[in-house]
User: What shape does this take?
Amino acid sequence: MTDILNIAAALLTILFGCFGFLAPRYTASALNLAPTTSTMGLSEMRASVGGLFVVSGAAALWLNEPLGFAMLGFCFAGAALGRGVSLFLDNPPVAKVLVFGGIEAVLAVWFLFGNLA
Assistant: This one.
């Protein structure tokens, strides 16, 4: 069962990454980050929201080792932590932070607790 959940969660990671990688304008708009004065934000979407997660998810699948999947958990834990800190310091849209942060937290918990013995 762990193997199936690892594969499904890694594929979900790749799918989420594809939005940032292939559709940065859509992703930026969904995250309230639409570029207004520069297109550098689109580059950041493709890099940090897209390519990072596409390649991380693909690498975990390719390596097919518990530590590879656990590393995805650390990535998602960092993203969820960043969103949590943002709630206190930045006054972002709470609903979006809770939805995206909740997804990241669930994936972090799965990847970490499901793969670290």
Remarks:
- The mean pLDDT is 94.
- Residues 2-115 form one domain.
- The CA atoms of residues 71 and 111 lie 8 Å apart.
- The radius of gyration is 15 Å.
